[in-house]
Amino acid sequence: MPKATPYFSQDYDEARAKFKDATKAAGGTMERFLNEAERGLKGEELSTDVAWHGPKDAEAVLVTISGTHGAEGFCGSGVQIGWLESGLIEEMPADTALLQIHAINPYGFSWIRRVTEDNVDLNRNFLDHAAGNWPENPGYNELAEVICPKEWDDATIASANAVLLAYADEHGATALQSAISGGQYNHADGIFYGGRHDTWSKVTLNRILDRYLGKAKRVALIDYHTGLGPRGYGERICVHKPGSPGIQRAEAFYDRDITSPYLGSSSSVPLHGVNLLGIEATLPHAELTAVALEYGTRPTLEVKHALRADNWLHLHGEIDSKKGQAIKEDIRAAFYQDADDWKTMIWERGVETQRMALKGLWS
Fold first, then answer.
1. Are 296 and 232 in contact (CB under 8 A)?
2. 238 lies in the same domain as 352
3. Phi, psi values for residue 331, rounded to 5°
4. Cβ contacts of residue 103 below 8 Å, gap of 6+?
5. Are residue 71 and residue 158 in the same domain, yes or no?
6. By residue range, what is the domain housing residue 139?
7. Tell me, what CATH number does 270's domain have?
8. Using one digit for the tens of pLDDT, what is the confidence trace for 82-137?
9. Distances from the Cα of 51 to the Cαs of 8, 28, 213, 279, 283, in angstroms?
10. What tens digit of pLDDT does each residue of 173-230 get?
11. What Gene3D superfamilies does its record include (predicted)?
């Protein structure tokens, strides 16, 4: 298998350029969805780029998504680029198409943030906001001020962490994880905020799916993520409901090597407003088999610490300060390990998963 490291990038600009070049060289067609309201860290334009390879009327389509959580985009982008540059695109069955959605949250990718430009966690945003019936998260409400304190110094952090640990001691570690990361809709300045409106990224993703998958009958979707689980291991998280045709197909596609938040077998807890469930609702005409491919980076507490620090920085700090730069380096490392062994693990598991998905589409 080709060496993985050249496929990965150091920033959003480089990733986008590599993706464009790889798509052109592989003979794909590309469409750009520009976020006209925002600019990137270096003042660059921000866009989601879509590549299509294969018949326009294909009934079977493999979809890959990178950058749902912005800063996690380095991982999925590397696999998307590598699939094209390595020549693995030639493995596509004749009657199957590949839809690559690159940097669906370009703001977060460029600014090295997990959230969109409006501080929304895109993977908690897929709800019917017009209904005004947002889920409650009493645990987050109780802990909001210590999850995201207004000061970020050693004393404040130690005091806040003591409260969080006490909550875990009383209610259990899983309850704390659900409170922090399950999704919340009352604290717009907090973390894991699902928003109360459709984000640009959600609207754009729905436009892409409507435009490209209208004729699809079978869709295998892989959404690339990082920051949860053992370092470098790619956990296939399936959010299709237990007993549903979706989870049964996923078990068949991936030789039962999947986990479920609902069954307690995943490193993730059940979440509100998940994108893959939203996508399932928008494709009633197709059999959707979706997984989030989640790779570990650093221990969970370190990742959560980096998220909290980054939230504080963008609300109260100065990015260009010494402290600000240290926080940005930390959040980057929480979601992207710039190490050859980690990149190799990402690449090999990604290739394995995409090959299994292609086989599953025709099983």
1. yes
2. yes
3. -70, -35
4. 12, 15, 16, 47, 48, 49, 66, 67, 73, 77, 109
5. no
6. 134-191+302-321
7. 3.40.630.10
8. 999 999 999 999 999 999 999 999 999 999 999 999 999 999 999 999 999 999 99
9. 18, 6, 13, 18, 19
10. 999 999 999 999 999 999 999 999 999 999 999 999 999 999 999 999 999 999 999 9
11. Zn peptidases
